[in-house]
Amino acid sequence: MSRNKLTPLSGCVAVVPTTRLAFIALAGCAAVLGGCGGGGGAATHTSAPAARAAGVPANLVGRYTTTLRRSDLPANPPPELTHGSATWQLTVARSGGIDNGQAVTIANAKLGVLESSNFAARGGTMLLRHEHCAAAGHQHFYDSRYRYSVSGGTLRFTTVSNGCEDKVAQTILTSRPWHRTR
What angle do CA 58, 168, 65 make, to 5 degrees? Predict the structure, then answer.
């Protein structure tokens, strides 16, 4: 099953299948948005307001890019790692997430946003909250923890804990260094 793309929209997270035709995706997005704020479905998540979030280290905020190599991918990689571009973009922002909170957004250069998660960063560790996982055809959300280091314009991640079996986000984040573009 294809992984879904998470797109933050007005405090909700719309889950939009990436392999369907555009008009089907738009219809699905409209259905999800119609239910925003009203139900407890798996497509929405509400976190604490941004005012309660810890600050983001200034040297971490920005846009980055990396390019995966075939050798970085696991055996029988999920389609999210083989379709589209080998180039990935990462945005670490102080706002723009759920409830206008901090957000880490992973996007493929050709296919667009893979996921966007609220996060907390402190002492060289980043906690991605409610990270999307589509392993074994089921939708799950996990809190994943990564160590990070920033040196000059280069950002590197190593895994502390990640519960997602498909390891898509983990592979993208940890396989190669990220280079600041802004």
Answer: 40
